[in-house]
């Protein structure tokens, strides 16, 4: 399966879950980088607006995917 097949209507992947996982992965990477830079003694400035945007995308993606799982089609 190629990358463009993921975005077809008749695939086995849930695109919302993929986007939610990618957003969550970015949040985890940023937090790990923040902890490591804090241990070294440097300050890693993180824009609150940007981080909150990733939180909203993650919760929205997983929330919609979860709702679709239990909603009748």
Can you tell me the overall shape? elongated
The proportion of residues forming helix, as a percent range, comes to: 55-70%
Mean pLDDT: 83
Q: Which regions have little confidence, pLDDT < 50, spanning 5+ residues?
A: none
Rg for CA atoms: 16 Å
What is the helix/strand order? HH
SS element count, helices: 2
Largest sheet: none
DSSP strand tally: 0
**Protein structure class:** mainly alpha
Q: What gap, in angstroms, lies between the N and C termini? A: 26 Å
In terms of DSSP E residues, the strand content is: under 5%
Describe the structure.
- With 73 residues, this protein is mostly helical.
- It has helices at 15-40, 48-70.
- The longest helix is centred in the middle third of the chain and has 26 residues, at 15-40.
- The model has no long low-confidence stretch (mean pLDDT 83).
In short:
The protein is an all-alpha fold. The protein contains 2 helices and no strands. The mean pLDDT is 83.
List keywords for this structure.
2 helices; elongated; 67% helix
Topology at a glance:
Layout: H1 15-40, H2 48-70
Helix pairs in contact: 1-2
